[in-house]
Amino acid sequence: MKAQLVVDQASGKVICTAYGTGRIHDFRLLKNTQIRFHNSQLCLADKGYQGIARLHASSCIPAKKPRGEVLSTCERQHNRHLASLRIFGEHIHRRLKIFRILKEQYRNRRRRFGLRCNLIAGLLNYELALFS
Question: Which part of the chain is the DDE Tnp4 domain (predicted)?
């Protein structure tokens, strides 16, 4: 089971969730769920989303090291800056994985996986609203 989250960087709230069953690539899950971003929104993604520029113009992924070569210093700085922006989304993943049902192998009914992820994301959003 795979869950994909869209997180607001300013507030930390989970905006949208998408789910895949079995082994599915991150980018294929994004294409299958038809999640669309507004053109003014910046989409920060990891290297698993190569080709997202065709779907969303203002998307940013890290530069990939060419085979047998090294990254230039400009590309390395870009990758580090992008990682510092993306870490906020990774912190949200950490807060979701505090719940054991998402941390370990999912052993319940598959059709309820989305419901349970949405409930946990709603709990996190509620907690953020209380403490902000």
Answer: 1-123
Q: Tell me the helix, strand and coil percentages in the chain, rounded to 5.
A: 50, 15, 40
Residues 6-24 pLDDT 10s? 898 888 899 988 888 878 8
**Cβ–Cβ < 8 Å for 5, 121:** yes
In this structure, the strands spanning 59-60 and 2-7 are: unpaired
The three-state secondary structure class of 62 is coil
Separation of CA 50 from chain center: 14
Total structural domains within the chain = 1
Among residues 93, 115, 98, the alpha carbon closest in space to that of 12 is found at 93
Residue 63 structure tokens: 């530069």
Q: What are residue 3's phi and psi, to 5 degrees?
A: -115, 140
* Alpha-carbon dihedral angle through residues 86, 16, 91, 24, given to the nearest 10 degrees: -80
Q: Rounded to 5 degrees, what are φ and ψ at 54? A: -70, -30
